[in-house]
TrEMBL record:
UniProt cross-references to InterPro entries, sorted A to Z: aa-tRNA-synth_I_CS, Glu/Gln-tRNA-synth, Glu/Gln-tRNA-synth_Ib_cat-dom, GluQ/Sye, Rossmann-like_a/b/a_fold
A GO cellular component annotation in the UniProt record: cytosol
Record-stated family: Belongs to the class-I aminoacyl-tRNA synthetase family.
Taxonomy of the source species: Bacteria, Pseudomonadati, Pseudomonadota, Alphaproteobacteria, Rhodobacterales
Organism: Pelagovum pacificum
Gene Ontology terms describing biological process: glutamyl-tRNA aminoacylation
Name listed for the protein in its UniProt record: tRNA glutamyl-Q(34) synthetase GluQRS
This enzyme's EC code(s): 6.1.1.-
Domain Glutamyl/glutaminyl-tRNA synthetase class Ib catalytic per the UniProt entry, residue ranges: 3-105, 181-280
Keywords assigned: Aminoacyl-tRNA synthetase, ATP-binding, Ligase, Metal-binding, Nucleotide-binding, Protein biosynthesis, Zinc
SUPFAM superfamilies for this protein: Nucleotidylyl transferase (SSF52374)
Length: 290
């Protein structure tokens, strides 16, 4: 069993992150397996060294340990680039110059109904889908042609979910992927590698057998399973856990500094207090560290 916690250093870790990290760490402990920490710092505008350092401090303070060296995605950009090249060589990738505004404008044409949103926001309307890789210009994003990609997959795609919210085997419906997710970005207009590609690449490379993460990423799983199949990578099991919420029932966001682990620590709370706070929302969550 290899599990991982894969935060992006774009803000302070909050209670939800603590829940996720402790859950992944425990899954590995219980199975005599390995727990990994991976820093997902592909977004160079939003990732900051101070948040990066604080992740290590917070997790160690919570009583967690992880196998080293820690993988930092920004140090492996060429590997992700090669994976995109492999997909492009098979004709599954197209360059795209559309801005967010262009996409919105194309989707708001009068004949369109309610706008479909997927794990990455608005579902791409396909404006640049006919373009060849030879027409790629600086500043173009690269997108996966999801229809073509699905057509290359001989069998059915599925994944096993352990999380109590949607426990069981999930068969992936190609039509829902086309309509609800669409031609995802693999590399952004600023050149940054997109999350889905890096996450499947790294989970496979690091031998992750169970992906423990928040239920907000459940809808991103089908397209990640598709990418695994396209790249010849194994599909891990998944454990999407409930989201920690604030008193008003809203899910916590990075901007929720008030519930940041570091804020609680500065206020004199102990790691045990943090676990007790999580257990208030999820009574089955044990407040013992092991
Ligand atoms: N890096 C992602 C985040 O911070 C999580 C990726 C994952 O767990 O698959 O939200």
């Amino acid at each position: 069993m290899i599990t991982r916690f894969a935060p992006s250093p774009t803000g302070p870790l909050h209670l939800g992150h603590a829940f996720s990290a402790i859950t992944a760490w425990r899954r590995a402990q219980e199975a005599g397996g390995t727990f990994l920490l991976r820093i997902e710092d592909l977004d160079q505008d939003r990732s900051k060294p101070e948040w990066d350092a604080q992740i290590f401090e917070d997790l160690a303070w919570l009583g967690l340990d992880w196998s080293r060296p820690v993988r930092r995605q920004s140090e492996h950009l060429s590997e992700y680039g090669q994976a995109i090249d492999r997909l492009a060589a098979r004709g599954l990738v197209f360059p795209c110059s559309c801005t967010r505004g262009d996409i919105r404008a194309a989707l708001s044409a009068p004949q369109e109904g309610a706008l479909a949103t997927g794990p990455d926001g608005l579902v791409y309307p396909g404006t640049c889908r006919g373009r060849s890789m030879e027409s790629r210009r600086p500043g173009d994003a690269l997108r996966l042609d999801i229809r073509k990609a699905l057509a290359t997959i001989p069998g059915a795609l599925s994944f096993l979910e352990h999380g109590r919210l949607r426990q069981g085997q999930h068969d992936i419906d190609p039509d829902s992927l086309i309509e609800g997710t669409g031609d995802i970005v693999l590399s952004r207009r600023d050149g940054a590698v997109a999350y889905h590609l890096a996450v499947v690449h790294d989970d496979a490379l690091q031998g992750v057998t169970e992906v423990v993460r928040g239920a907000d990423l459940f809808d991103a799983t089908p397209v990640q399973v598709l990418l695994q199949a396209l790249l010849g990578l194994p599909t891990p099991d998944y454990d999407h856990h409930d989201l920690v919420r604030d008193d008003a029932g809203r899910r916590l966001a990075k901007r929720d500094d008030a519930r940041a682990i570091a804020t609680y620590r500065d206020d004199g709370l102990t790691p045990q207090d943090i676990r007790a706070k999580i257990a208030l929302q999820f009574p089955e969550f044990s407040t013992k560290i092991r």
